[in-house]
Amino acid sequence: MPKVYRQLTVPDMVRVHRYQSLPELGPTLLFFSGGSALNKISRCLKRYTHHSVHMVTPFDSGGSSAKLRDAFDMPAVGDLRSRIMALADETVLGQPDVYELFSYRMGTRANSKQLFLELAALVDGSHPLMIPIVAPMKALIQTQLKRLQERLPEDFDLRGASVGNLIIAGGYLSYQELLDPIVFLFSRLVKTLGQVTTIIDDVYHLGVTLSDGRRIIGQHLMTGKEAAKLDSPITKIWLNNGLTECVPVQPLLPDDRRQQITSSDLICYPPGSFFTSIVANLLVTGVADAIAKNRNPKVYLPNLGEDPEQLGWPIMKRIEYLLRLLLDDEPDQNCHRPVLNWLLLDDAYDYGFLDEEKLKEWGVSVVRTRLITTRIERYDEQRVSEALLSFV
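The structure corresponding to this sequence follows.
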């Protein structure tokens, strides 16, 4: 089949303005991500396309998600809810009252009785945030919260609980312990301008082996946020059944996720925790094959600053790891079966040593453009969005 080539310009403002004028017909940009690192970029991107796809890891074992996981043995929903809210329609055409409710967190200083009374007010509709919401949306939300209330352990700690997380958890319990139905409903209620899904709808955790031989199970022990930063580099990562014993699992990628990966206009490995947000998605059996079957651009936008998970993992090592992971340990096959085409970099930031001859051997091209516009080490979401849109 003949190929069609075009000159790549980054940013390509003609394309950017075209997408901005009609985001309803914008391209499908697919992101393998988790956590909040991509939320600002996502919030900007929805001005250009309403068809971005965000595959989020459900393996988080920390924060408020951990409380719900412990109570109901369910996947983590915090990152899922966070990305849905980032893509929600925040204009007058959206649902501002629903958006405000889903973004609300319960107090951290109130006692247990006060918090359970507040939950009861949400369930019966008398809470100030529930009053403005009209039927039938109000009834749908109440149904999910009531289901959660009925199953919530008496000693459950509601301090700092995200109401959005509680609604998703209630829906999970209502829909035969499946996430997809409640994620669909939740997304419709806030009019998400894009699609957010978990890579799989299963209750698994992350495990890693460190270079000193230690094994760690639980994402919350790897990120340096809820436990001490790792003092030995990660050498292996896997999906694990449970938090107590090493029980590796290899779940299969569902057919609908496979279709989304193979049909997207661009695949991006975005900023975020390298192992627990990006690589975690790629561990699911079938993901690598789906990526390779997509002939459209695949772009890696590396992290800025310090990522505790990247201890001992300079940029060239991370690129080689991605290629080996996705190509059965044969990075040279990327020239023939590409899973990564482009390395997108800021033109002034020091990412560390780049062996561009080796990248060329692997079939990876480097694109440098202005992506950082402040003195703070943070990507400018507008410039990143414009750069990614220029590839499609």
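The radius of gyration is 21 Å.
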